[in-house]
């Protein structure tokens, strides 16, 4: 990449300057606008300020509280009415504009001299930098000044919110209150002036034109909520003043001193809120305050995780449900609970039960267990109420999808429900019956007193002894033992997690215990054992530990925190130990170590720390939980800063000329950068790297999920998306098993994993975590790698190659953002690409393809015929031993059946269908082959037939016996075409019967069928004995005589191709010798017997061997097959010439079979006739035959020829069941991948370019097998920091240049891949899965 690429294009710089000014002024567009537009905006901006000033002076004249309250209300009402008037005016202007568009039609002469009518335009935006208005009184000018609200609800809601903001702002910035806080007139005046500027700034964007915000959360705004952000921020800052005044003056529990140790915290918070309100325009300009939508979800997540002990959710509905349940739990505990020594034990037990229940995936369980059953019953009721066949047929497709209830998942959910029920019962029993052992404390006389005893209480009530008793207090033996057991359990799990990863000690040194074997019995036993320890053993242990702590704290502390705060701490820890057991173990270990270090220091100094002795253990655990998360974020952000700073110097391709200067500035101002890291970690906000340069700032806080869109709903789908659709359902369970085994470390919500295999890259995000369940989201990246994508992907390959194949003892890439973890077996497609140039160009190879095509053509033709009879086999065979009257009745019935239209016709599936035994039904089309025709023999409408005499002959078909076979063929996934509207099959009898009654009955039936066209011909009116005589004339490839199409058995007429094949003219007589010399008669007989024997058995025939012999000696039947085979062969090779098969194939060159593989055939009479008359035959027989011939010929050249016909048949069956042959851009290829067909094969030709312009022939094969995929862990703060920069650059600066600096490759931080995996429209992943749940696996 050139280092001269600008960060921002020149044409964007003016736009960005104007946009920044508009953001600071609250939406005023002061540049690129006519003077009267600027004046109008300023007037609208000042009007609320004038009204506020009047009421502000009126408020100061009032000395009574009611007078001041009235001033607040009147001021707010005035702003409300002002907003309503503006919107009424906007609607009036809109109606006038619509009327002007409808009435004012002017005539304009176009450049061609024609008169065209045009309507006036009222659009005021000429481009993004300039506004064009039609005068100070024009409609466009007024529409620009006062835009209309899109939603009627906002017409009243926005003015109402503006009035509320104004009234409360007047209350918040009253002069006396501000002077009391800042103790000075000058500072108070500055606070009031800038505070009112912030409020007016928010009102202008709310009532007129909303400003563009740097803190943009969505690419497209919904419900006009963007303009609510600034008033919402103002109200949020006013809230501390309202709470302070209410609690101090009118507190229901005796004022604020009852809740805190004095009013200093609230006064300090109120002091900060006044300063922040005055600085809000600057904070909005810097983008530090989030959008109202982002703020609600961010604040709710922080409250749910660190106060209520829950987890972040991947969707707003789930988040709302879990947060509501947590708040309801707190309300019930606060209303009915009491932190008294007598009731604390039962309160702890109830909190433990509620914590266990709320930590479950309640929404997922209800959705899978009840909602799906309800949907199924609803669908069944709807289908049962249908009375008409038409409605049922129309409901077939919807029933196919709606009625597929995953009963396996429901059964798994029921099993999971009972497992949780058992665990919950055991938890309740342990919490109830676990004995509480009170600790002992030492009195001044050296006697140990039991906590809660009269002597203990008496000692604590003495003057000057409280602090000493808290210093000398010790835990009970149970608490000490349980605490150290928790520490030991955490260390055990931490060590086992580290040694299972490929690199231990923070990803630096290779672990000697790492094993790539995952699905072994010892590993599965370890997974079960670890799961029980993590998800059941450690929560039970922690529950007992917390119970002792809470009971001791409720007795000991003289001045506890307020009741609601203690209840929150109890609720949080009793749920957190189930919601995130690993994190709870860490926090308990931190608390134990802290107390172990603090108590000796307190005894030596004789002082009592506020945190140690004034706060309960539950509150301390809450604080340690918050501290643990923030320390983790701080370390990860510090790595991001150091890595990006160093990379900007190291990377020569993208090194800027001022990179060294930035490096020195970061070192010089490192305390400032460290402060940014600390603040962003405290508020859980991404650290923004401007243009991905080492210029750091704080981004606005946002939810852990980061992007606002629903999971899995957005992706730039392409042809390669299907590979990820097949891969991810197998990948996520494998990743989850590794996670349960501890091989991925401890995954939290917001953790990122990257998976690499061949050219596939999958980005996995942990969306939600709870009691024995995880939700994952997966995204697939494009396979067609760009230069930047390829550079970073190659670095990933180097990392995983060095780790898993070379097995390096030290991680050479330890400072890379990706840390290798494990290699997992996943059922997916392995990609193999080969160059066939040099092999396919050989004349022997081309000749082998030609010969093999003749043999695969036979096999597919028979399969095509037999499938046409598949759904017609329901007719019971007739016995010829009936009387003449019965035969006559049966013949009449046959005539009626010939005239019926099948209500559910058979139609063909794709040529590449795999399962030949399951054919889905489809509607009949005019393009399908019409097999049934009600014509008579000798009908002149059959058209002229051109026949040519034959030259040589085959051996007698009756004398053919099975023999050795030395050449072979290979096959494609092809389907035989069922015959549409075919005469239902009727079995006339077995050819072995020779009695006179059977012969007479046959003659009688033949007379009845004289005027009925049977598919392929009619019955011959000769005695049975004469019909069983062997052929005296041999079969040739000369054209048959159309006026002699009779068959010796009725079954022969059923198995014959359609008679209209005789209409196809023949011109390529020179190929008959090639056909006869290369046609394998042994394979024809073998395939005929193997194919039709099963069909006859399914029809109820007994002597199938003899009947097959009778069919083979029927020269009319074999002539029909010969005709079809010849025409199919000429469709591919007809236009070419040669003395033998090799010369014939060589004349077409390698392009002939490659093009035929892609369904591109040379122009010929046969091809035109087949496309017009029987297009399904081309798709179902010719195309799969040539594709299978190509594949098998390649295999024989490379691997050797087949030794027998049985081996050939086995390979054909295997290909038919486990292979798909076709082009990659065909829809059937994607369907085959989605169905997980074991093997796929494709051939293509590309121009090599250069001086020779040589054509390269390539093959592409996919094999479904267990492949080793490499899994690495990403630094989440690096990802969020790059995404924050992308969000700012594209959504606010609109710098969408494809070659911009921030999208260039950066090998250490994977900048290009991180940008690519963002949600659209910023990113461009080709696949995004829905949230995938993984729960309790079978133990």
TrEMBL record:
| GO CC, any one term | membrane
Which family does the UniProt entry place this protein in?
Belongs to the pecanex family.
Q: Tell me the membrane topology, using the record's own terms.
A: Multi-pass membrane protein
Kindly provide the name given to this protein in its UniProt entry. Answer: Pecanex-like protein
Q: Where in the cell is it found?
A: Membrane
Q: To which species is this protein native? A: Tigriopus californicus (Marine copepod)
What are the Pecanex C-terminal domain coordinates in residue numbering?
A: 1163-1330
Alphabetical list of PANTHER family matching this protein: PECANEX, PECANEX-LIKE PROTEIN 4
Q: Which Pfam families match?
A: Pecanex_C
Instruction: State which residue ranges cross the membrane.
Output: 35-58, 70-93, 155-176, 188-208, 269-289, 321-338, 344-366, 417-436, 475-493, 658-677
Q: Which UniProt keyword terms apply here?
A: Membrane, Transmembrane, Transmembrane helix
């Amino acid at each position: 990449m050139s280092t001269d690429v600008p960060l921002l294009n020149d044409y964007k710089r003016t736009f960005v300057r104007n946009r920044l000014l508009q953001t600071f002024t609250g939406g005023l567009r002061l540049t690129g606008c006519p003077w009267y537009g600027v004046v109008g905006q300023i007037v609208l901006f000042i009007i609320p300020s004038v009204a506020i000033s009047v009421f502000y002076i009126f408020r100061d004249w009032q000395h009574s509280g009611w007078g001041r309250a009235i001033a607040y209300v009147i001021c707010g009402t005035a702003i409300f009415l002002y907003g309503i008037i503006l919107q009424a005016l906007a609607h009036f202007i809109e109606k006038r504009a619509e009327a002007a568009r409808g009435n004012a039609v002017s005539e304009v002469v176009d450049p061609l001299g024609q008169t065209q009518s045009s309507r006036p335009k009222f659009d005021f935006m000429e481009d993004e930098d300039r506004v064009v208005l039609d005068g100070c009184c024009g409609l466009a000018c007024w529409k620009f000044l006062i835009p209309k609200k899109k939603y009627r609800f906002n017409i009243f809601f926005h003015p109402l919110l503006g009035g509320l903001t104004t009234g409360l702002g007047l209350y918040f910035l009253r002069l006396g209150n501000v002077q009391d806080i800042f103790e000075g007139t000058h500072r108070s005046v500055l606070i009031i002036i800038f505070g009112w500027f912030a409020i007016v700034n928010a009102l202008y964007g709310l009532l007129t034109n909303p400003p563009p915000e740097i803190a943009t959360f969505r690419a497209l705004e919904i419900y006009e909520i963007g303009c609510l952000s600034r008033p919402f921020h103002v109200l949020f800052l006013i809230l501390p003043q309202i709470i302070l005044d209410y609690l101090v003056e009118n507190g229901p529990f005796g004022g604020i001193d009852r809740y805190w140790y004095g009013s200093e915290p609230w006064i300090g918070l109120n002091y900060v809120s006044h300063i922040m309100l005055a600085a809000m325009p600057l904070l909005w300009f810097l983008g530090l305050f989030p959008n109202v939508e982002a703020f609600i979800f961010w604040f709710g997540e922080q409250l749910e995780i660190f106060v209520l002990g829950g987890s972040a959710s991947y969707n707003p509905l789930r988040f709302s449900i879990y947060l509501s349940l947590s708040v309801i739990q707190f309300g019930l505990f606060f209303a009915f609970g009491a932190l008294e020594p007598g009731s604390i034990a039962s309160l702890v037990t109830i909190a433990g039960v509620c914590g266990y229940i709320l930590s479950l995936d309640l929404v997922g369980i209800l959705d899978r267990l009840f909602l799906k059953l309800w949907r199924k019953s609803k669908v069944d009721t709807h289908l049962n109420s249908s009375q008409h066949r038409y409605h049922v047929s129309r409901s077939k497709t919807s029933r196919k999808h709606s009625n597929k209830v995953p009963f396996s998942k429901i059964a798994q959910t029921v099993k999971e429900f009972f497992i949780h029920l058992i665990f919950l019962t055991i938890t309740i029993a342990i919490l109830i019956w676990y004995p509480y052992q009170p600790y002992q404390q030492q009195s001044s006389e050296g006697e140990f007193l039991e906590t809660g005893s009269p002597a203990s209480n008496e000692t604590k009530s003495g003057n000057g002894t409280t602090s000493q008793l808290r210093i000398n207090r010790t835990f009970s033996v149970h608490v000490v033992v349980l605490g150290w057991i928790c520490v030991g359990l955490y260390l055990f799990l931490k060590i086992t997690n580290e040694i299972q990863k490929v690199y231990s000690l923070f990803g630096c040194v290779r672990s000697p215990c790492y094993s790539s074997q995952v699905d072994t019995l010892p590993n599965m036993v370890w997974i079960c054992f670890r799961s029980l320890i993590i998800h059941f053993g450690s929560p039970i242990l922690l529950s007992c530990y917390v119970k002792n702590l809470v009971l001791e704290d409720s007795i000991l502390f003289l001045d506890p925190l307020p009741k609601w705060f203690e209840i929150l701490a109890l609720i949080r820890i009793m749920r957190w130990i189930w919601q995130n057991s690993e994190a709870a173990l860490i926090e308990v270990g931190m608390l134990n170590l802290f107390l172990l270090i603090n108590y000796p220091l307190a005894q030596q100094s004789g002082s009592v720390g506020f945190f140690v002795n004034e706060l309960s253990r539950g509150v301390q655990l809450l604080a340690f939980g918050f501290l643990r998360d923030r320390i983790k974020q701080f370390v990860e952000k510090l790595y991001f800063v150091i890595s990006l700073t160093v990379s900007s110097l190291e990377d020569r391709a993208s090194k800027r000329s001022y990179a060294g200067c930035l490096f020195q500035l970061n070192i010089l101002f490192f305390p400032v950068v460290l402060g940014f890291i600390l603040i962003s970690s405290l508020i859980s906000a991404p650290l923004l790297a401007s243009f991905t340069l080492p210029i750091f700032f704080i981004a606005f806080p946002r939810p852990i999920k980061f992007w606002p869109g629903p999971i899995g709903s957005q992706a730039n789908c392409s042809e390669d998306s299907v590979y990820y659709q097949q891969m991810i359902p197998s990948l996520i369970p494998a990743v989850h098993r590794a996670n349960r085994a501890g091989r991925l470390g401890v995954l939290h919500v917001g953790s990122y994993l990257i998976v690499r295999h061949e050219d596939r890259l999958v980005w996995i995000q942990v969306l939600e975590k709870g009691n024995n369940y995880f939700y994952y989201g997966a995204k697939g990246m494009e396979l067609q790698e760009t230069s930047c994508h390829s550079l970073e992907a190659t670095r990933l390959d180097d990392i995983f190659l060095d780790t898993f194949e070379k097995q390096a003892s030290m991680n050479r890439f330890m400072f890379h953002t990706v840390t290798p973890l494990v290699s997992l077996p996943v059922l997916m497609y392995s990609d193999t690409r080969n160059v066939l140039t040099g092999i396919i160009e050989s004349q022997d190879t081309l000749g082998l393809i030609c010969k093999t095509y003749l043999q695969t053509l036979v096999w597919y033709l028979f399969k095509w015929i037999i499938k046409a009879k598949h759904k017609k086999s329901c007719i019971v065979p007739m016995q010829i031993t009936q009387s003449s009257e019965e035969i006559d009745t049966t013949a009449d019935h046959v005539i009626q059946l010939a005239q019926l239209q099948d209500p559910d016709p058979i139609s063909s599936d794709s040529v590449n269908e795999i399962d030949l035994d399951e054919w889905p039904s489809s509607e009949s089309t005019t393009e399908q082959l019409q097999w049934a025709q009600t014509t008579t023999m000798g009908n002149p409408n059959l058209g002229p037939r051109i026949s040519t005499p034959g030259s040589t002959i085959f051996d007698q078909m009756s004398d053919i016996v099975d023999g050795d076979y030395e050449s072979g063929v290979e096959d494609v996934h092809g389907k035989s075409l069922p015959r549409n509207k075919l005469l239902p099959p009727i079995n006339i009898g077995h050819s072995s019967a020779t009695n006179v009654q059977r012969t007479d009955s046959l003659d009688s039936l033949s007379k009845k069928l004289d005027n009925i066209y049977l598919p392929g011909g009619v019955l011959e009116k000769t005695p049975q004995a004469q019909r069983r005589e062997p052929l005296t004339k041999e079969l040739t490839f000369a054209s048959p005589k159309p006026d002699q199409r009779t068959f010796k058995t009725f079954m022969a007429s059923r198995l014959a191709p359609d008679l209209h094949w005789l209409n196809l003219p023949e011109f390529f007589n020179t190929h008959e010798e090639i056909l006869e010399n290369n046609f394998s008669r042994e394979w024809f007989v073998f395939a005929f017997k193997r194919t039709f024997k099963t069909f006859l058995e399914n029809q109820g025939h007994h002597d199938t061997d003899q009947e097959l012999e009778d069919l083979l000696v029927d020269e009319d039947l074999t002539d029909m097959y010969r005709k079809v085979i010849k025409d199919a062969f000429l469709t591919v090779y007809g236009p070419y010439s040669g003395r033998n098969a090799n010369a014939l194939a060589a004349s077409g060159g390698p392009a002939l079979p490659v093009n035929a593989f892609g369904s591109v055939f040379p122009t010929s009479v046969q091809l035109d006739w087949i496309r017009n008359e029987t297009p399904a035959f081309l798709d179902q027989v010719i195309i799969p035959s040539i594709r299978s011939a190509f594949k098998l010929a390649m295999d024989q050249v490379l691997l050797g020829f087949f030794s027998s016909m049985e081996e050939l048949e086995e390979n054909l069956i295997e290909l038919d069941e486990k292979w798909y042959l076709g082009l990659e851009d065909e829809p059937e290829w994607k369907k085959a991948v989605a169905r997980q067909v074991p093997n796929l094969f494709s051939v293509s030709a590309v121009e090599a370019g250069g001086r020779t312009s040589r054509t390269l022939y390539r093959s592409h094969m996919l094999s479904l097998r267990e492949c080793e995929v490499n899994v690495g862990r990403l630094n989440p703060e690096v990802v969020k920091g790059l995404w924050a920069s992308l969000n700012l650059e594209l959504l606010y600066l609109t710098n969408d240049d494809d070659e911009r600096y921030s999208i260039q490759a950066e090998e250490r931080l994977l900048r290009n891949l991180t940008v690519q995996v963002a949600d659209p429209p910023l990113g461009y992943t080709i696949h995004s899965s829905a949230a995938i749940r993984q729960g309790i696996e079978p133990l």
